[in-house]
Amino acid sequence: MASFWAKEVPATIIVAALLIWIMPMMIGTYTLTVLLIYGMLGFSLGLIWGFGGILCFGQAAFFGLGAYTYAIAAINIGDSTIPMLLAVLVPAAFAALLGAMMFYGRLTDVYLGVITLVVTLILFKFISSTAGPEYVIGKARLGGFNGIPGFQTLNVPGRPNDYIYGDPYFYFCAVLLLIVYLLVSWLLKSSFGRVAVGIRENEVRVALMGYDVSARKTVLFAIGAAIAGLAGGLFANWGEIVTPNLFSLGQSAEIIIWCIVGGLGTRIGPIVGAAGLAYLKFLLGQQSMIDNTLLTGIILVLFVLFLPKGLVPAIASLWRISFGQRRQLPRHGARRIRSGGARHG
Amino acid sequence: MDLVFVIIVEMLYAVASLVLISAGLAIVFGMMKIINLAHGEFMMMGGYVTITAVTLGANVFVAMLIIAPVVVGLIGLVVERLVIRHLYGRLVDTMLATWGLSLFFIGLATMIFGNTTTGISTPISGFTVGNYQVNGYNFFIILIAIVLLGLMYAVLKGTRLGLIARGAMQLPDMAAALGYSPERIYMATFFCGSALSGLAGAILAPLVGLVPTSGGAYIAKAFITVIAGGPSLITGLMASSGLFGFISQIFTFAVSPVMGEVALLVAAVVLLRLLPQGVTGKFFRGRL
Amino acid sequence: MSINRRHFLASAAAATGAIMLPRAVMAADTIKLGSVLDVSGIFDAYGKPMDMAMRLAVSQINAAGGLLGKQVEVVGYDTQSDMALYSQYAQQLVREDKVDVVHGGILSASREAIRQTLHKNKTLYFYNVLYEGGVCDRNIFINGVTPAQQAEALVPYAMGKSGKKVYIVAADYNYGQITARWLQKFVADNGGETVGVDFFPLDVSDFGSTIAKIQTAGADLVIAPLVGGAHLSFFRQWAAAGMKDRIALASTTMGVGNEHKVLTAEEGNGIMVAYNYSQELDTPENAAFKEAWVAAGGDAGGMHELAVSNYHGVLTWAEGVRIAGTLERDAVVEALETGVSITGPGGKVTVDPKTHHAVLDVHLMEVENQGMRVVETLPQRQPIDTQAVCDLGANPDDNTQYEIQI
Amino acid sequence: MAEIVLETAGLTMRFGGVVATDNVDFKLRAGELRCLIGPNGAGKSTFFKCVTGLLTPTGGQVFMRGHETTGWNPRQVAALGVGIKTQVPNLMDGLDVHENIWMAARRFLPMQDAMRKASEVIERLALGPIARTELGRLAHGERQRVELGLVVAGDPWLVLLDEPAAGMSADDVERMSDIIREMTRTAAVVIVEHDMQFIRSIASTVTVFHQGAVLMEDHVDRVMADPTVRNVYLGKKA
């Protein structure tokens, strides 16, 4: 724990500061902002899937819920502070309920996948069919397929006319992602985080030790949803419109692909995977020779077949093989790649 | 009275189409414990194969019942050899890889056929029931679903192949112990599953406007139906298709099509919460 | 395929240019026209021909000597049917590419995703798609038909050919909802009765129960503003049930993406529609357009309502620039507000200064052998729905999409 | 007389028509060491699962230190301070030995104390050289030992072990019996076991199961000598 505060936190902050300084010189901040937001979204699934072993096919549901909560609250309240908080709390509460239902019902793997998928579909179908004038929450029309445009965007707390947008918004998102990253790192170092990893490894054993596995999974699930909701709120501010597509299965699929490509069981992997693939998609949109869906599909298949652990662990092990302590190679070469010491004290 | 008849036909049709769209996935999942998320795209390809064959001059029924299943089955075989066989026993990885495949096939179909909606007209004309006109093709789909279920039952129950397959379902090593290569059984199973998906896509093609992304509409429903059905292949398929088809049609008639879809999904969530192993995990155990 | 490659080279060059070169090098010796369209993904049936039409219009302008003595360069992005990419590319067009005008957007959601960005950054925007009406913003020009323009013409004609009892089946989103309301109004105005209204999400493809419901209601006429590939199933299942000869069918959307060419002749014949464009329009402008389209490598039957709207949009903008004599936004807007007209493949299109919508010809048509036979042309219809709520002359700072109360 | 820590009254478990455990009354006192033996299908494993909460009995009651625990799930049983080892090794394969044991200790202790406790258990079970090795990479005997470590780390007052010596080498078995004897200083221990060698080495009292019911209950030597037992159990084996 001591080394966490003394070494890892300062190191992370320095690296992040460098990135925040350098990246805008290469990519426009507007695009960078959404890459950060996707990074946070990928991170949220990376946490519950990579460290909690919960494969959620519906992470997009929490993302969309966060975005919609923000938009609806912002229209009704007119100041962005409370809506931003609600964008975190509402998805978390929703996930807590859903999680409790699933985990106390002892649903696992495929069944968990089906339920989360179905819940996402229900939300998508519901939100898509709210075009009629009868669907109003306070002053906000839900708008159906067209979504909700024109809500109050992020402002300095208490001063609704001082908007935070453009470059300052990029820095805001970057710092927020850094904070979330550090909080999650701390969580994973804590007893709660380690027991969560234990549950991923062997749920029955952890229950036999006397831990309340269902409650812990529910809490972790809710934390993941809170982060996804935060990303959703940030996304709403960035795009200035929310649409039912945020809930779509395609969106959920992308989040899973980000995690796989970046590397599960690592903290940085899903962030890198999300930002990298989203940027790739952005670049691909500037050409029209190869169908982009086809390319995404090939990438996913190739990763599952040849690099099932993802980019970050592969690079890390390459690094270790090239520059690590050679004496220990036979033993460590075949070892599972660790998450930057996340599971150690 | 006529309306009641029409509603019953629509309900049977809803059940039959659920059986059709889920059968291929159910076989692959039941036998190999693999969720083929490219199932919807296999159906989409079945549709395109049919349309292409018909425009090239094939008889529409030959195209639907023979050409499409065979072609899609062969595509499935290639997929199995190239991708799936490396991933046996890794449920989540196969789901992800087949998800990737589904995107790949969507992209491929877009490049070949473009994104414009296509289709063929229904080969069976409508007819009159009292004051109502009913889509005659509905009966064809109901018939096909019944024949399909009967055939699956006969093969599993009555043939040597079915016996081996059932053995492999119970214990993967069983087939090997009997001297059959599990690899070949898996190949055959995946071929059959893909062919059934192709058949379903082909048969539904005249009813819908086909685009490369059409598969997405089916996969979620098929996935839900198969999982909710539970371990017994045929009984599970019938039970969950019957239940979901009935519920969704009731709500479609009484409220609206959206509510029909939502009711189906809600029913699935409630069902899985109450019976986490699916319908046949609790009832009709040990049936086929 | 050759088209694709050419597009790729052009856009790849533009893209690398945008990424690699420092901004100063990109001198303003060309006029830049930004385009954001779904050229891939689920909406590309609309987007591809629109892209084609836009490029055709630009190449024709360039071939005729360009605008203000400069060539027009297209900076096009494929939004891949992803709403988030609209926002991103709009920012890219405004900040990095610094384009002079943006044409594009297909779904209303995509328009709303970029409208404010372009408004804030004072970049002129053309939205060239048939839509639900009501957008009131001095920075945007819209030349698609709106529900009232269609419904006002279509409803009396269709009722005259069938009967007084009308059943409406509409796509469940803003366009469908608003169109359904206009349809109901015009049905009532013409002495008819709306016996049922059903809305369908865009992914519903099973209409059996609805067809039974329509029969129960005893309708004489069904009007179907349904949208997209899944909804095409309605027309197919309608024909399969043998309903075609029993109840008349009309639509305000079927055909804008050339859907009538997908239906067989037996399925499509007799469906009544009302649009600004039909491939079968017998005008010299349309003949010239079709010829140029094929010459540019387009599919001979590929042009549709939305593509032609996009073509009109580029021509209208070009005319505005010529009159203004500058690319400066306010000057171009003022020039357009003088009531500029162009004559395109769909007939004469005039800018309505009050709403920035279009006054255009609406053609009543019937689907016949996979074509749209023009029955009657109603010249120069006003966008009365938007006019009821929007007056940019009186409120130039307005920036809302009104939901028109009927 | 020491306190009764585990008691069952009329414990019955039916699977469909088959009665796996039939009306079993069972008592265990603090500090006692008890082995459950019997031929395959005698019901000892089912009995074990009903007690640990892995199965919910169809009839009868279970008491632990006077609390009725019938129908509790394993977590609730474990939370009482009962250490459980299942028949199939249940370990967190992706984590190392120290992490595994620490997690068991952490359930009942604060963070730092759990650290100390884990180190102490590792030393006691002579797991020092492999403390930082992932469980997935260990040999079977080592894994069994680590699982005992997990049980010990929680400082249980009642330990329930299902076949702890299965598939172990003679050396490992000997070390195992030392550990178990050590356990009995603070806890009552119930062991389901086949290996008579092992049972002899820990010299415990034995309860013999036959056809779902308790056949006899006595010291291991006397049980081994009993003709009925030899007949139903050992006789078959020989």
From TrEMBL, chain A:
<feature type="transmembrane region" description="Helical">
    <location>
        <begin position="255"/>
        <end position="280"/>
    </location>
</feature>
<feature type="transmembrane region" description="Helical">
    <location>
        <begin position="169"/>
        <end position="188"/>
    </location>
</feature>
<feature type="transmembrane region" description="Helical">
    <location>
        <begin position="292"/>
        <end position="319"/>
    </location>
</feature>
<feature type="transmembrane region" description="Helical">
    <location>
        <begin position="82"/>
        <end position="103"/>
    </location>
</feature>
<keyword id="KW-1133">Transmembrane helix</keyword>
<dbReference type="Pfam" id="PF02653">
    <property type="entry name" value="BPD_transp_2"/>
</dbReference>
<keyword id="KW-0472">Membrane</keyword>
<feature type="transmembrane region" description="Helical">
    <location>
        <begin position="12"/>
        <end position="38"/>
    </location>
</feature>
<protein>
    <submittedName>
        <fullName>Branched-chain amino acid ABC transporter permease</fullName>
    </submittedName>
</protein>
<feature type="transmembrane region" description="Helical">
    <location>
        <begin position="218"/>
        <end position="235"/>
    </location>
</feature>
<dbReference type="InterPro" id="IPR001851">
    <property type="entry name" value="ABC_transp_permease"/>
</dbReference>
<keyword id="KW-0812">Transmembrane</keyword>
TrEMBL record, chain B:
<feature type="transmembrane region" description="Helical">
    <location>
        <begin position="134"/>
        <end position="156"/>
    </location>
</feature>
<feature type="transmembrane region" description="Helical">
    <location>
        <begin position="186"/>
        <end position="211"/>
    </location>
</feature>
<comment type="similarity">
    <text>Belongs to the binding-protein-dependent transport system permease family. LivHM subfamily.</text>
</comment>
<protein>
    <submittedName>
        <fullName>Branched-chain amino acid ABC transporter permease</fullName>
    </submittedName>
</protein>
<feature type="transmembrane region" description="Helical">
    <location>
        <begin position="12"/>
        <end position="35"/>
    </location>
</feature>
<feature type="transmembrane region" description="Helical">
    <location>
        <begin position="223"/>
        <end position="247"/>
    </location>
</feature>
<keyword id="KW-0029">Amino-acid transport</keyword>
<keyword id="KW-1133">Transmembrane helix</keyword>
<dbReference type="Pfam" id="PF02653">
    <property type="entry name" value="BPD_transp_2"/>
</dbReference>
<dbReference type="InterPro" id="IPR001851">
    <property type="entry name" value="ABC_transp_permease"/>
</dbReference>
<feature type="transmembrane region" description="Helical">
    <location>
        <begin position="91"/>
        <end position="114"/>
    </location>
</feature>
<keyword id="KW-0472">Membrane</keyword>
From TrEMBL, chain C:
<dbReference type="InterPro" id="IPR028082">
    <property type="entry name" value="Peripla_BP_I"/>
</dbReference>
<keyword id="KW-0732">Signal</keyword>
<feature type="signal peptide">
    <location>
        <begin position="1"/>
        <end position="27"/>
    </location>
</feature>
<feature type="domain" description="Leucine-binding protein">
    <location>
        <begin position="30"/>
        <end position="371"/>
    </location>
</feature>
<dbReference type="Pfam" id="PF13458">
    <property type="entry name" value="Peripla_BP_6"/>
</dbReference>
<dbReference type="InterPro" id="IPR028081">
    <property type="entry name" value="Leu-bd"/>
</dbReference>
<dbReference type="InterPro" id="IPR006311">
    <property type="entry name" value="TAT_signal"/>
</dbReference>
<protein>
    <submittedName>
        <fullName>Transporter substrate-binding protein</fullName>
    </submittedName>
</protein>
<comment type="similarity">
    <text>Belongs to the leucine-binding protein family.</text>
</comment>
From TrEMBL, chain D:
<comment type="similarity">
    <text>Belongs to the ABC transporter superfamily.</text>
</comment>
<dbReference type="InterPro" id="IPR051120">
    <property type="entry name" value="ABC_AA/LPS_Transport"/>
</dbReference>
<feature type="domain" description="ABC transporter">
    <location>
        <begin position="6"/>
        <end position="236"/>
    </location>
</feature>
<dbReference type="InterPro" id="IPR027417">
    <property type="entry name" value="P-loop_NTPase"/>
</dbReference>
<dbReference type="Pfam" id="PF00005">
    <property type="entry name" value="ABC_tran"/>
</dbReference>
<keyword id="KW-0547">Nucleotide-binding</keyword>
<dbReference type="InterPro" id="IPR003439">
    <property type="entry name" value="ABC_transporter-like_ATP-bd"/>
</dbReference>
<keyword id="KW-0813">Transport</keyword>
<protein>
    <submittedName>
        <fullName>ATP-binding cassette domain-containing protein</fullName>
    </submittedName>
</protein>
<dbReference type="InterPro" id="IPR017871">
    <property type="entry name" value="ABC_transporter-like_CS"/>
</dbReference>
<keyword id="KW-0067">ATP-binding</keyword>
<dbReference type="GO" id="GO:0005524">
    <property type="term" value="F:ATP binding"/>
</dbReference>
